[in-house]
């Protein structure tokens, strides 16, 4: 079966574009960088966050391919924790000419709807803008961009726009519908 998939690409071109979210009240939310490159942890976050929204593009990757992604100089994963439990993550991919892509961002289903996403995205964008401070061989960030699609959560686009991202491209295509993989076979929301 085919479905219509809309993909929106959004960007910020200055650190002043960021409109940060409030920090969720009453929650013990912390955000920390996963500073040790770990294919296992990266894959865990990817499946835990994207399993119910058809993230499947990386599922066929080998361990070596996952490890190459997390060991790329300048690549970073920032994780939101609720009282020590991983609640979601932002993955930053450094690209040429000072460009940083937010390749993955999202929350584990049980943590959605509590205001954590806006806070995590705000911190992830801040970290994209100051990436060169942690990677001395990296040029200063000139642009932060991402894409979202019609399969993502219903609040994704609104969150990006409220954080100051601007739409620069829209693509509509017919694609083969894929199964929702879940974080493990047979899991569903």
TrEMBL record:
Record keywords: Transferase
Single GO term (MF): acyltransferase activity, transferring groups other than amino-acyl groups
Keyword Nucleus: no
Entry-linked InterPro entries: Acyl_CoA_acyltransferase, GNAT_dom
N-acetyltransferase domain mapped to chain residues: 29-182
Name of the protein in its database record: N-acetyltransferase
Source species: Streptomyces gardneri
Lineage, opening ranks: Bacteria, Bacillati, Actinomycetota, Actinomycetes, Kitasatosporales
């Amino acid at each position: 079966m085919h479905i219509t998939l809309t993909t929106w690409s959004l960007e910020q071109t200055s650190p002043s574009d960021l409109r940060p979210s409030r920090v969720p009240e009453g929650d013990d939310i912390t955000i920390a960088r996963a500073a040790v490159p770990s294919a296992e942890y990266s894959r865990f976050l990817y499946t835990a966050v994207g399993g119910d929204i058809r993230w499947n593009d990386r599922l066929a990757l080998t361990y070596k391919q996952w490890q190459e992604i997390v060991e790329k100089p300048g690549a970073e994963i920032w994780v939101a924790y609720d009282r020590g439990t991983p609640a979601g993550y932002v993955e930053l991919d450094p690209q040429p000419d000072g460009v940083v892509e937010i390749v993955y961002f999202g929350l584990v289903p049980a943590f959605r709807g509590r205001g954590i996403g806006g806070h995590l995205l705000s911190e992830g964008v801040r970290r994209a803008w100051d990436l060169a401070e942690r990677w001395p061989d990296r040029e200063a960030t000139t642009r932060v961009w991402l894409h979202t699609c019609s399969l993502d959560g219903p609040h994704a686009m609104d969150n990006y726009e409220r954080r100051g991202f601007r739409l620069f491209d829209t693509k509509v295509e017919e694609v083969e519908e894929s199964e929702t993989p879940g974080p493990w076979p047979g899991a569903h929301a």
